[in-house]
């Protein structure tokens, strides 16, 4: 071996020896220090949380008297705002300020902790749901007459996110009847039943609350999930269906007392589970329709009792004397396989088709009678289809949707599903509304720089005819019409906000009511009749 080769070999052996020494030092001394430090940090976080948070929010962060402290449930609360809330507390709640008891770094440690996802999907089944139920008033014990004088069909429930309250509003006089607290962070829009007497709310952390409008009080509450998207009420007022992100489930409740009737795990035939994007009621079909976020399926769940024969599975002969076994379990699932995931969807007024989109912009039309996707849908960006509305324009029936990522409203022919027109707007929008008696559709520009603007669109010319600014510099959002379509109510989405009432024909301001960050407002008649001008 030459001197050069020997030197090179010595160098390699020396490097290898050094690597071995470094590895030994890492394993023997340094790694344990890091592990100890990490363990100590975890213990410190756990100790902080258990001492200051667990009593109200649960040791597992799944919630208790206070809301669940999980990143999925804190979607509307940014970390900086969470830091401020821990330090200063939350007015009009049981959340006290901790700035005198915790340092700024300790508060930041807690903030990081509550925005850390759990390692496993938590379980929340029949046992937990049943144990959570609260009965404020037993069914049938409250008077059957309203405590106030008003047209029940023209009432509004206005959700005020600023301090987690709701206001019952007289739609004839625009005078508040009653203001009451709600659960933290309502989500998905309240739903009515029994002619408007009862309204059901869903909170982001899974609480379902039944409110008796006649008696201005809650009757019962139950926690149907840990992170909930929305709820739907059957057209006959017997059942409530809850769509959950956590756990991956659909939950059926008895609408009378909110007792759980069935928990449906959302799993495909390969064992993959999915979050539920949304659930809606399809009245003529006596079923619920659910969009799934992680499985390429749409589910239809029958609420007929007993269920239709063969619902959700193959059946060869429907004759009563055929010997073919029927479906015996209530709330059977019919799985409709589709071509892509559905994050959001719109249902046609006859409940035969849905138009759905995924977050990547792909869209499809699914025929519920045939049970399959029938064509692609050209809707780039992020259309907000759950806010889409429909009307007759000339000899065509059209659907119009705002777009969360694009400065436009897209108008589509619901027979051919082709785009008729894209109406330019001042920014991306969130909510769109109209009424059968109104010639106009209203849309906000919620995500744009000019978010204080509200566009009014002529439903025949498909042109913007007016742009209103209810409050300069403050976000305008979510229009809803009175029962007769004569007035349009707009939210000024701000803690120092307002509900602004406009004459829907000449666009003059009629009334302005101060409110704490009003978001959605929901008219009893428009919701119960499934008006084509509002979301279902």
Walk me through the structure.
The protein has 536 residues and is an alpha+beta fold. 16% of the residues lie in helices and 35% in strands. It contains 6 helices and 33 strands. The chain has a 5-stranded antiparallel beta sheet. Strands 4-3-2-33 form a 4-stranded antiparallel beta sheet. A 4-stranded antiparallel beta sheet has the order 9-10-11-12, with helices on one face. Helix 3 crosses helix 4. The longest helix has 50 residues, at 3-52. The radius of gyration is 27 Å and the shape is globular. The termini are far apart.
Shape verdict: globular
- Report the biggest beta sheet as strand number plus sense, adding barrel if it closes: 5 strands, antiparallel
Helix content: 10-25%
Strand order within the widest beta sheet: 1-8-7-6-5
The low-confidence runs, each spanning 5 or more residues with pLDDT under 50, are: 1-13, 29-38
What percent of residues are in strands? Answer: 35-45%
User: What oligomeric state do the depicted chains represent?
Assistant: single chain
**Total number of beta strands:** 33
Determine the mean pLDDT. 88
N/C terminus separation: 86 Å
Structural class: alpha+beta
The DSSP helix count reads 6
Computed over alpha carbons, the radius of gyration is: 27 Å
């Amino acid at each position: 071996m030459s001197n050069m080769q020997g030197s090179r070999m010595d160098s390699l052996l020396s490097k290898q020896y050094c690597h071995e020494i470094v590895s030994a030092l890492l394993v023997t001394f340094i790694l344990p220090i890091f592990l100890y430090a990490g363990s100590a940090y975890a213990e410190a976080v756990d100790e902080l949380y258990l001492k200051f948070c667990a009593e109200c929010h649960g040791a597992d962060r799944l919630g208790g008297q206070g809301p669940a402290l999980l990143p999925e449930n804190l979607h509307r609360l940014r970390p900086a705002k969470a830091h401020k809330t821990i330090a200063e507390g939350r007015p009009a709640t049981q959340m006290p300020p901790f700035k005198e008891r915790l340092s700024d770094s300790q508060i930041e440690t807690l903030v990081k902790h509550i925005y850390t996802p759990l390692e496993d999907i938590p379980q929340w089944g029949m046992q937990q749901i049943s144990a959570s139920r609260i009965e404020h008033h037993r069914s049938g014990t409250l008077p059957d007459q309203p405590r106030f004088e008003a047209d029940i069909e023209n009432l509004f429930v206005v959700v005020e996110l600023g301090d987690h309250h709701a206001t019952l509003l007289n739609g004839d006089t625009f005078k508040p009847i009653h203001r009451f607290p709600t659960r933290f962070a309502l989500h998905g829009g309240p739903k009515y039943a029994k002619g408007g007497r009862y309204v059901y709310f869903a909170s982001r952390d899974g609480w379902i609350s039944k409110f008796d409008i006649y008696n201005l009080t809650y009757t019962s509450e139950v926690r149907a999930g840990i992170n909930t998207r929305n709820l739907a009420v059957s057209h006959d007022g017997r059942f409530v269906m809850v769509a959950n992100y956590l756990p991956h489930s659909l939950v059926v409740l008895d609408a009378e007392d909110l007792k759980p009737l069935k928990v449906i795990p959302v799993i495909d035939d390969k064992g993959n589970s999915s979050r539920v994007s949304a659930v809606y009621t399809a009245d003529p079909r006596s079923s619920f329709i659910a969009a799934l976020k992680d499985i390429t399926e749409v589910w239809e769940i029958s609420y007929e009792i007993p269920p239709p024969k063969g619902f959700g599975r193959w059946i060869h002969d429907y004759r009563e004397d055929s010997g073919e076994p029927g479906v015996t379990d209530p709330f059977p699932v019919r799985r409709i396989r589709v071509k892509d995931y559905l994050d959001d969807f719109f249902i046609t007024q006859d409940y035969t088709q849905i138009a759905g989109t995924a977050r990547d912009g792909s869209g499809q039309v699914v025929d519920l009678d045939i049970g399959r996707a029938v064509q692609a849908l050209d809707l780039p960006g992020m259309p907000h289809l759950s806010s889409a509305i429909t009307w007759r324009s000339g000899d065509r029936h059209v659907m119009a949707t705002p777009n969360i990522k694009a400065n436009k409203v897209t108008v589509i022919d619901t027979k051919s599903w082709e785009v008729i027109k894209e109406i330019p707007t001042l920014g991306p929008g969130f909510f769109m509304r109209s009424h059968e008696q109104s010639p106009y559709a209203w849309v906000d520009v919620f995500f744009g720089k000019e978010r204080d603007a509200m566009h009014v669109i002529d439903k025949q010319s498909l042109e913007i005819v007016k742009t209103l600014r209810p409050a300069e510099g403050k976000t305008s959002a979510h229009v809803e019409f009175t029962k007769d379509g004569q007035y349009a109510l707009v939210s000024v989405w701000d803690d120092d906000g307002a509900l602004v009432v406009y004459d829907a024909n000449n666009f003059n301001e009629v009334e302005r009511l101060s409110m704490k960050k009003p978001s959605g407002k929901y008219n009893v008649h428009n919701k119960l009749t499934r008006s084509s001008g509002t979301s279902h």
